[in-house]
Structures are given as structure tokens and as C-alpha cells.
Write a structure and sequence with these properties.
The structure is a single chain. The chain is an alpha/beta fold and 349 residues long. Helix content is 47%, strand content 19%. It has helices spanning 23-38, 60-67, 86-98, 111-115, 117-123, 134-144, 152-160, 173-192, 195-206, 217-242, 265-276, 301-312, 335-346, and strands spanning 9-19, 50-54, 72-80, 103-108, 126-129, 246-248, 251-255, 280-285, 291-296, 315-321, 324-329. It has a six-stranded mixed sheet with strand order 6-7-8-9-11-10. The longest helix is centred in the middle third of the chain and has 26 residues, at 217-242. The termini are far apart. It comes from Pyrodictium abyssi.
């Protein structure tokens, strides 16, 4: 995005939503789309078009650039389920300077966002953070505005992915079919990184109108087969790496820098945790050269260790949630120093 620092034209585009690719992001995006397009309630009063962009923290600058490609500032920008990083904050700050009249709404539950919340509040008063899934935080916000019910499809999908309070009523056969379909499409769009597939799922979940499947299910089935094969490869790699796991305090440290790059490191850490049945710290080098440490544990131990590494100065930023923390390490981190800090922090698990 240009860094001119000058406000853009007063001509506005309506609502822009940037949300994560996964089920939580899809669900939260569908809620905002439903509240704006069908209920005419939020973020703006009246019926307005909604621009949808899927992205993670690395893809956020490109997603925002797509929204701004017309040269106009949106009336509202909603960011959902994306962990706040230093780079993302810089991009968002630049956007706020160029579009001072845009309402920035940030809803998230990731560690790094909560950790940097004070800086985020300096950009916007509409920040909704918590340790519950983003879709729960979004639904709580909409409920406070009078949206008591969602579309049957969206309601069923939310229940299935576990982002709403548990209900004693079992799902009907029709709800189960919706959930299976939506979950399959969600996984397919995540694997493919297909923006149109993701948008179709969001709009289909948000729509109160009866419709058949929004996409070609043959495509979804083919992608799911690829995903299943990928899952098998990750499990095989985890079993190979488990033999070399090093005990560091109360955690098992696995250095996979020469054995893994690209996506799937979090899934690999979870597989190792399941095999070893102990907290795991997995070290990988991302395809762009960044050094990542993924910690998997029970409860909130992974989060406490991630915060500890951040305070110790060896971590650049942290993400993740629950018992899974994703830590971007500083490029100059010494491995012996890292292991010693892991040893000391693991004693507090």
C-alpha cells in the first residue's frame, strides 16, 4: 500500500472483511456478512455490499491491497481471526493514516493479538478480544446488537465446529448434512487457497435462502483426497522425527529445520504430541527463511512458554491458541540459549 500519508478520496466503498481461511474465520465472516447484507445492522445501517478477502497474517497486506485497488477507502474494515504481528500492525497503521474515516473492527482470540492489544486499541475503539474462538466473540457482539438467531446452515456449522455453547439437543440429519458439506468445503478451500471457493462458502452459510451445494462437490472430494494423503505424510514424518526427540526439561525438543519447510508445521507438532504423549517444541524453518518454534502442550502451558520466550527476547512474535503456540524466533537466536530457556520455562508447565 502506498505510504504517502495523505488521506484518500472521500468516495467510499462499503464493508470490507478480511478473515482467516479456517472454519473459525469462515464462520465469523459469514456472521458479519449475514448481519450486514441480510439484517442491515452491522457494521453499517442499511443494506450494503460486502467485499470478502481470505488471508492469514502473511497474506494480510495483499488482501488489504486488493481491497484498496480501486483507490477508495471502505466505510468499514472488519478483521477476523487473524493474529496480530508486527508487520500486520505496521500495515494496519498505514491504512489508518490513509483512511482516517474508516471504521476498523478487529475481532480475534490469538495470543499475539491479545498481547499487543494496547497498541491495537490506539488504532480503533472497536476491538473485541478474548480466549474464546473468534466466531463466539463475533456472535456475542451481534447478539448484543439484537441478532438472536443466525441462518440454519450457519447455526448448524457453528455447533459442529464447537464454537458455540454446547447444546443438549442433538443435531438433526439435515443439520449433519449441512455440517459435513460445509466442513468439506472449508477444508478444501484451505488446502487449495482458493479465494472464490472460500467466498462461496461464506455467502452460502450466511444466506437464509434454500440452496443446493454452492460449489462442485467433485472438486471438493478430489481436494479432500489430497488433504488425506498430506495428513498421512505428516504422520509418517512425525513418527520418523519422534525417534530423535531430545528431552529438554519437561518438554521434548525436535529440531526439524532440515526435514520440514512450508505449511503443515502445526499439524506436525500435534502429531508429535500425540505420539510422544508429552509437551513438544518443534523447530522448523519456513519456506521464506523464518525460524518457527511450535509448542504443543495440555492446557495453557504452550501459551505461558511462548510469552516467556517473548519476554526473554528470543521471540519476535507469537501466535496460536489453546495448547498450541506458534513462535517466530529472532534470526540471530543461539540454539544453546534457546534450549536452556526452553528447559527453564518447561519447569513451570
Amino acid at each position: 500500500m502506498p505510504g504517502s500519508g495523505k488521506p484518500r478520496s472521500l468516495v467510499r466503498t462499503p464493508v470490507a472483511v478480511i478473515a482467516d481461511w479456517d472454519a473459525d474465520g469462515v464462520t465469523a465472516a459469514a456472521m458479519i456478512y449475514y448481519a450486514q447484507y441480510y439484517r442491515k445492522l452491522y457494521p453499517l445501517q442499511g443494506r450494503h455490499d460486502v467485499v470478502l478477502e481470505p488471508a492469514g497474517p502473511r497474506g494480510f497486506p495483499d488482501a488489504l491491497a486488493n481491497i484498496m485497488s480501486s483507490g477508495n477507502c471502505p466505510d468499514a474494515l472488519v478483521v477476523l481471526d487473524i493474529p496480530l504481528t508486527e508487520k500486520l500492525y505496521e500495515v494496519l497503521s498505514g491504512f489508518a493514516r490513509e483512511c482516517p474515516s474508516t471504521r476498523i473492527i478487529y475481532i480475534d482470540h490469538h495470543f499475539s493479538t491479545i498481547y499487543m492489544s494496547k497498541r491495537l486499541y490506539e488504532l480503533s475503539e472497536e476491538v473485541y478480544l478474548g480466549h474464546k474462538p473468534t466466531a463466539v466473540l463475533t456472535f456475542q457482539l451481534l447478539r448484543s446488537l439484537g441478532v438472536k438467531h443466525l441462518t440454519p446452515r450457519l447455526q448448524a456449522f457453528m455447533k459442529a465446529v464447537g464454537v458455540l455453547e454446547r447444546s443438549k439437543r442433538p443435531m438433526t440429519e439435515a443439520e449433519n448434512r449441512v455440517v459435513k458439506l460445509a466442513a468439506s468445503i472449508s477444508k478444501a478451500s484451505t488446502v487449495l487457497r482458493d479465494k472464490e471457493l472460500w467466498r462461496k462458502l461464506v455467502k452460502w452459510l450466511a444466506s437464509p435462502l434454500p440452496q443446493d451445494a454452492p460449489v462442485d462437490m467433485n472438486l471438493v472430494e478430489r481436494v479432500l483426497k489430497v488433504a488425506e494423503e498430506s495428513d498421512r505424510r505428516i504422520e509418517e514424518k512425525a513418527r520418523d522425527l519422534a525417534f530423535g526427540a531430545k528431552r529438554v526439561g519437561y518438554i521434548r525438543f525436535v529440531d526439524a529445520r532440515r526435514h520440514w519447510s512450508g505449511r503443515g508445521a502445526s499439524a506436525l507438532a500435534s502429531k508429535l504430541y500425540k505420539i510422544l504423549r508429552q509437551p513438544v517444541a518443534l523447530l522448523v524453518r519456513r519456506d521464506d527463511g523464518a525460524l518457527l518454534l511450535i509448542i504443543r502442550s495440555r492446557g495453557r502451558g504452550a501459551y505461558r512458554m511462548a510469552v516467556g520466550l517473548l519476554k526473554e527476547g528470543v521471540a519476535e512474535n507469537i501466535g496460536g491458541h489453546g495448547g498450541l503456540a506458534v513462535i517466530k524466533l529472532r534470526d540471530d537466536v543461539d540454539m544453546k540459549v534457546l534450549e536452556e530457556k526452553l528447559r527453564r520455562l518447561s519447569l513451570k508447565l
